[in-house]
Amino acid sequence: MEIDISRKVSFVIKFALPAILLVIVLLNLCIWLYGQYNAYLTFYDARVAGTFLQTKTLTDGTLEKFLVKDGEDVTAGQALAQIQPNVTQDDINKLQQSVDQAQQQYDNMVSLNQQGSTRVVTQPAAAAPAPAADDSQYQSALANESKMKNLYDLGAISRNEYDNAVSAAESARASMNQGSGAPAPATTTSVVSAPSGVTPDDLQMAQTRLNQAKMALEEAQKNTGLTELYASANGTAYYTDVEEGSNLSAGQNVLDIATSNYLWLEIKTTEEQANKLKEGAYAECTINGNIIGGTVAQIVAPDGDEPKYTVKIFIPSDKMGGIKPNMIATVKIPIKK
């Protein structure tokens, strides 16, 4: 007896095959969507970079011993090293000058903290209003530039740090102009008020320097022997090329201190990759065997002979233990949607 299965086969061909094709299409669509919303760039050559707060001796002498280990976390005011001074009257006079200068710097910073500052700024003439976010970033960068200028004038920061603040303000202004989507309008010059930007941490650092200068002077005047160097801020202490038993000269740097504001990861990349990244994005950093969550803080366009973009990634200060300059890290950053 023959059984006719043609109708069943026809049913399968008519409905099952389209269903299978639909499932395949849906799976591919899901894979594509997953890739779009979970895509990231991985950099294997991120480098720890930064600038440091120097801890200098204020008198000639001999480095007796370090009181902290290389790479140890320290707090502001903590003793870092002991020095046996070679005290002369000329040394005492120099120390007195250091106290006077530190006192003047501290007094000036206190005064700046109680008042704002004004700057003559060149801005785009009125046209299409800039996005609120761009304007906010520009005002923040402008305030930071004003702060850094005040600190530079006081001798509290280096020229490089001040130049970085100026560059950041110019970059923010350029970004605000480009965000308008229109040709660059004529510029106008106006006087803009900005806060001094002196923070409690800045005042604490200046106070610590003043106290250190006073203590060094008192020790020299009493000529009682060992004097100590103290940390000017919270951070991580790193040895320089100075060793225990070395002869020191006044003004010589003995230790460097890296703080969360002075240590970051730096990536060199192409314009194509830089355009896929977004400031403020989360960055998964693998460094020194540990995975640390960081933030894309700044994407800097090439300047001068530098052919590549620079991506700066800041990491939390409580995660900096054991991290030293020039270490290599692997960084994974989601691409912007």
From TrEMBL:
Main subcellular location: other
Key words of the record: Coiled coil, Membrane, Transmembrane, Transmembrane helix
Entry superkingdom: Bacteria
GO CC terms, sorted: cell envelope
SUPFAM superfamilies named among the record's database cross-references: HlyD-like secretion proteins
Keyword Transcription regulation recorded: no
Transmembrane segments: 12-34
InterPro entries: UPF0194_transport (IPR050465)
Signal peptide stretch: none
Biased composition annotated in UniProt, kind: Polar residues: 174-193
Chain positions covered by the region annotation Disordered: 173-197
Localization, UniProt: Cell envelope
Protein name in UniProt: Multidrug resistance efflux pump
Organism: Pectinatus cerevisiiphilus
Lineage of producing organism: Bacteria, Bacillati, Bacillota, Negativicutes, Selenomonadales
